[in-house]
Amino acid sequence: MAVLGAVAFMAQLDFFVVNVALDGIGQSFPGTSVASVSWILSAYAIVFAAVLVPAGRIADHWGRKKMLLSGVALFTLTSAVAAAAPSLGVLVGARALQAVGAAMIVPTSLGLLYPSFPERQHTLVVGLWAGVGAIAASAGPPVGGLLVTLDWRWIFLINVPVGIATLVAGALLLPEVRQPRGAAVPDAASALTLLLAVSLLVLATVQGPGWGWTDLRTVALFAATALAAAATVERTLRAKAPVIEKQLFAGRQFTAATAALFLFSAGFAIVLLSTALFMQEVWHFSPLRAGVSIAPAPLTSIAFAMNAGPIQHRLGRTAPAVTGTLAMALAAGYWIASVHTTPDYWGGMFPGLILVGLAGGLTQAPLFAAAGTLAPERATTGSAVLNMSRQIGSAVGVALLVALTPQATTTGFDHAWSVQAGAGIAAAGALLALRPRHTP
Fold first, then answer.
1. How far is CA 127 from CA 206, 308, 315, 367, 374, in A?
2. CB–CB of 399/205 below 8 Å?
């Protein structure tokens, strides 16, 4: 549990931890534009989202332990390259390869949980694993704020000893799990079309605010996304072993979790970036002060994530997840009403951060636990689909925030928080509409 939780935390933390370090990174490479520096985030987001599902399917065929340890090795090596990067181009390239390693780690770590623990403990361990993801998302800004006071390179360097330790522990402790010999190899065409569809969608979403949503390049990317997505669906329905099997969506719980994760993640990405930006750009907090000020959210997430198993056992999956999504919406409403230009952390920002922590701790664990409703041989692929949904949602949320806050004004942030509230309410609606008809 410690090994699988540590690697999942490390891989997911790096998606969020860089947000507060962009300014310092830009100063290290004079002459670079803000748009160029933003590719440190964009490259990771695009590659991570695109590679998740193909990596999950290959892991089932090749061996989950082998895939996980290879991913950790790649992630650790590229973290060291990023820490020592002499130029922005090298750093962006290292981040793209780092994202490949992360995509090999995240779904495979969940896929290894099921065979490692008896069935009666699956709710508990999956709840803990998903709670780790929630904590990683919430802890990114405060951890980044703390490390960037030393040097932004520590954000990447700190992964190296953790990666080496988990490589050794994983090689000794983890079981090897793979499909039986002779199982059909995942369809290459569906893997390629999915890779293209996700990459183009996230690229269009990331670049849309800068290029303009009606710009020919943006429109062309969305059109290409639609064609690639149509080809993926066609291969899913007709191929012998498509990379996303249609049987994954036969159950209402998994379908609901996939839709809700997309919506919730869009809102949650707005939370994580908007709070850090607002406190730095409007209230003029330092990166460290902003990071520490966000800390109540991950601390609250930890408290609820550690109890995810008992909460689900008592209330089921739907009720905690719906409560969490509505808490995120309520946080947005509170900030719209209470956060103004004059700094008022305790009366304005703090209560909403507690609600956000509640949302992260309650929502993500039961949604990721939906992978446990699938057949054991589909758990890794199911986890990859859920993570892909979250990553695409996060990219959409960031793009919407950038588009709504071209200048750091309270009006722009109010509009972004309105979108956050809408995403939370829509996610709750998806969960209620697709909840199982019968309680097991």
1. 31, 5, 13, 9, 16
2. yes
If phi > 0 it is left, if psi is from -120 to 50 it is alpha, else beta; for residue 333 that is alpha
For residue 392, what are the contacts with CB-CB under 8 A and spacing of at least 6? Answer: 49, 198, 201, 202, 205, 262, 265
Nearest to 264 by CA among 362, 135, 163: 362
Q: What is the mean pLDDT of residues 61-90?
A: 94
Write b or e for each residue in 330-367: b if 16 or more Cβ atoms lie within 10 A of its Cβ, otherwise e: bbbbbbbeebeeeeeeeebbebbbbbbbbbbbbbbbbb
For 398-410, what is the mean pLDDT?
A: 82
At residue 39, the pLDDT reads 84
What is the rounded CA–CA span in Å between residue 221 and residue 205?
Answer: 9
- CB–CB of 104/92 below 8 Å? no
pLDDT above 70 (res 395): yes
> What's the CA gap between 99 and 74, in Å, rounded?
9
Give the span between the Cα atoms of 318 and 363, in whole angstroms: 9
How much helix, strand and coil, in percent to the nearest 5, is found in the chain? Answer: 80, 0, 20
**H-helix or E-strand spanning residue 13:** helix 2-16
Single out the residue of 416, 127, 49, 48 nearest to residue 266, CA to CA: 416
Say which residue the tokens 């390259």 belong to: 81
Query: Nearest-CA neighbor of 391 among 46, 71, 74?
Result: 46
Longest dimension (CA), the chain: 66
CA separation for the pair 105, 307 (Å, rounded) = 24
Distance from C-alpha of 57 to C-alpha of 104, rounded to nearest angstrom: 10
* pLDDT score recorded for residue 325: 96
Tell me how far apart the alpha carbons of residues 73 and 67 are, in angstroms, rounded to a whole number.
Answer: 10
Torsion of CA 102, 105, 110, 114, to 10 degrees: 180
Structural contact between residues 423 and 266, judged by C-beta atoms closer than 8 angstroms: yes
Total Cβ atoms within 10 A of residue 176: 11
Give residue 104's Cα distance to chain centre: 14
